[in-house]
Amino acid sequence: MLLGTHEMFNRTKKFSDPETFKLYLTTRPFLEFHVRQRVQRLGNVKFLDGHDVIEPMTAEHRITGVRVARRSTGLVTTLICDLVVDATGRTPRTQTFLDRLGFARPSETRVASPVTYASQLLHVSEDTDLDKLTFLNAAPGRPFGGAIARCENDTVMMTLSQFNLDEPPTTFAEMITLAEQFVPHAVVETLRSAEPVGAVHNFWYRDAVWRRYDEMAGFPEGLLVIGDAVCSLDPIRGQGMTMALIEAVALRDCLFEGDADLARRYFHMVGKRISTAWEHNRMTAPLHSSVPDSATFGQRVKWNLMAWWSAKMLMAARNDIAITETILRVNNMQDAPRSMRRPTFVLRVLRHCWRRRETSTAPAPQRQLTLSGV
């Protein structure tokens, strides 16, 4: 993993718990196809493809089902159910449903996170000299980042991002031109020789949004919200599916205790989980970007202090596998950010700072291995 042109983490020893860092590198269609197949094999699951939800069915203040329409014919069907879960992503239907039912909408917490990015699937030969996964993080003054992952069937997914709202590249040639600004030369040359598969896909993102269902005074029974419909995090951080899984586990745990007061218990538990990721993203923002122009003097001081401490942690991580492991566990949402505030961790970082003069570090080696995929 690179920050600017420098290796961020120690790679000379083994983690104490390497199994927690196992990765499965696949394209999204490959992953979703296999997950869907496994779910379809469950005896009590049925898929209703080619339909759109029109509106919920209600009795007093409880959702009792939904009306759905077949796209091909417009035929409307009513589905009676005990629980409706809105998993429709960043443009959820629940807020419209709440309006119809006379409930207030949840308040929103937003953090500006402007980013545009482009993704291109590539085909490479089996013996191509390219690591399984490479991250290239943005740095203050250089708002570029990306990820290059080797996936199934000799494919590579290349994603390049710009931490502003500049137009993203729309062709493979434009992506290579952008990559030349911050990707190591050897990696660029390998990508240049790859064969594009399909077109470049572009994405624009302005804000991280947390809809505070956990703070609502009332919510209809029989309805819940999950995934990006609750909290949409910066997609470049790669936290979306992990957060959705954490929320699904929270729902499972709540259902073990019955369905009484389910919405309040579920949203309260989910709010605590989201708060952890939200805090981590706030803490690490100074590492990748400059102080916002609109920041007050106090905010600038705090931002610069966080940037200074983040730099100290990463400097220490280059020489200490335990610090590296702690940072990665927090980044992978396995541990809470407070683990990086424990006295033992802080003292370990400071010990490295005291031992070494703060001199410029050597550029990262030619091979930019970050984490081995499976």
Summarize the structure.
The chain is of the alpha+beta class and 374 residues long.
> Ends: how far apart?
17 Å
Whole-angstrom Rg? 23 Å
What is the CATH topology classification name of the domain at 48-107 and 212-285? FAD/NAD(P)-binding domain
What is the CATH architecture annotation of the domain at 48-107 and 212-285? 3-Layer(bba) Sandwich
Major sheet description: 8 strands, mixed
Q: Unreliable stretches, pLDDT < 50, 5 or more residues?
A: 358-374
Tally of individual helices: 9
Structural class category: alpha+beta
In CATH, the homologous superfamily of the domain at 48-107 and 212-285 goes by the name FAD/NAD(P)-binding domain
Mean pLDDT: 86
Helix content: 25-40%
Strands, count: 13
Shape: globular
Q: Provide the succession of SSEs.
A: EEHEEEEHEEEEHHEEEHHHHH
CATH class of the domain at 48-107 and 212-285: Alpha Beta
Strand content: 15-25%
> Order of strands side by side in the largest beta sheet?
2-1-8-9-10-7-11-13
InterPro entries: FAD/NAD-bd_sf (IPR036188)
Protein name: Epoxidase LasC
